[in-house]
Amino acid sequence: xxxxxxxxxxxxxxxxxxxxxxxxxxxxxxxxxxxxxxxxxxxxxxxxxxxxxxxxxxxxxxxxxxxxxxxxxxxxxxxxxxxxxxxxxxxxxxxxxxxxxxxxxxxxxxxxxxxxxxxxxxxxxxxxxxxxxxxxxxxxxxxxxxxxxxxxxxxxxxxxxxxxxxxxxxxxxxxxxxxxxxxxxxxxxxxxxxxxxxxxxxxxxxxxxxxxxxxxxxxxxxxxxxxxxxxxxxxxxxxxxxxxxxxxxxxxxxxxxxxxxxxxxxxxxxxxxxxxxxxxxxxxxxxxxxxxxxxxxxxxxxxxxxxxxxxxxxxxxxxxxxxxxxxxxxxxxxxxxxxxxxxxxxxxxxxxxxxxxxxxxxxxxxxxxxxxxxxxxxxxxxxxxxxxxxxxxxxxxxxxxxxxxxxxxxxxxxxxxxxxxxxxxxxxxxxxxxxxxxxxxxxxxxxxxxxxxxxxxxxxxx
Length: 462
Prior knowledge:
Layout: H1 7-24, H2 30-37, H3 50-59, H4 66-76, H5 81-92, H6 102-111, H7 115-118, H8 121-131, H9 140-144, H10 149-159, H11 166-173, H12 180-190, H13 199-213, E1 218-226, E2 229-236, E3 248-250, E4 257-262, E5 267-272, E6 278-280, H14 291-302, H15 307-320, H16 327-339, E7 351-355, H17 363-366, E8 375-382, E9 386-393, E10 399-400, E11 405-406, H18 408-423, E12 426-432, H19 433-436, H20 439-454
Parallel strand pairs: 9-12
Antiparallel strand pairs: 1-2, 3-6, 4-5, 7-8, 8-9, 10-11
Helix pairs in contact: 1-3, 1-4, 1-5, 4-5, 6-13, 14-15, 16-20
């Protein structure tokens, strides 16, 4: 994702640094300073103080040029760590970055072993210096009689390993509350050979970090070499949305009549025929949506005393929405629950007749701008934000006139819908109806398919 640069803040931060540099320069040096930073040339010296000339130069700089000026300040000026970080945070906020929530940061810190990093103590301190503010201001330690963060890290991490855990270090650095781009930069630097010149140690760290990043649809990706060592960058991997759905509309017996009760909060209501639609509106965590969570929702909302009864009635309700003229679709649903009957509680819920898109108007009315594949046969929400769509294709997907004639237009529309879903972070798997028509023949096929699907590692999903 990317945010928006606060240009007012960026201008203020540049002004702070530029004004001090201008005051330290002579009148004759000011044009060269402006040229070095990419600022407009100052007005002539006659009758103007250095401060007035500097102010006029910065005021003449258009907003669009401020990021380039900030880059020049960062690259060429001697800055305090506070000045550097404030400028970087303002600049990076408007650039694409990976949002990493506080919970993921903390779980990653709890899993991080600093042993390999602190073998290279000077490099490790340089790493921290490159990202964080480790020292007080000039008189801070003397005035407060309190050790600086640098002193504490050298004592509790370097000299006496084990005094502080990685989680404590992150807490002291402010890493849990830091802006997303800065935390992402920190993760990259922890993988850098400049600070960890040991390829096996680099890869051990990256493997650990990626276990926590994969559910967000992100990873530290091997992206070339640097001085003979692997180079890693934090990137989105195109799988896993990193978001939980707000509303799951499924097991529908017809097109739902939806209205927003709060458009700001994305709260919806089924205006008519609510008994023909199921809407799961609870948060879906990073472990996906499992059967026991769906059953618990059903049991509570329907006030069913026994969990076993709730499971049976929920299954019956979902099965009832499956089209009677599609034995393949019904077999897939029945066989999934048969295959996983002994582990069903922790198995991903198989949601039938799921609405992926919704449009109040018909495809005929919407025309060429209509969304494709509004409703899909099945959806599974797997750990890590992975959304898997399963489709059972009958003749209607690629023929017309009740199967008598091929229809390339229908087939093209189906494929276009699949491409759209893939780009939105879904995986689409299609079965031919004839593969699933016979339950006995379909059983081994689906057993093998679901075993491979559900046992994949996060790396295999990318």
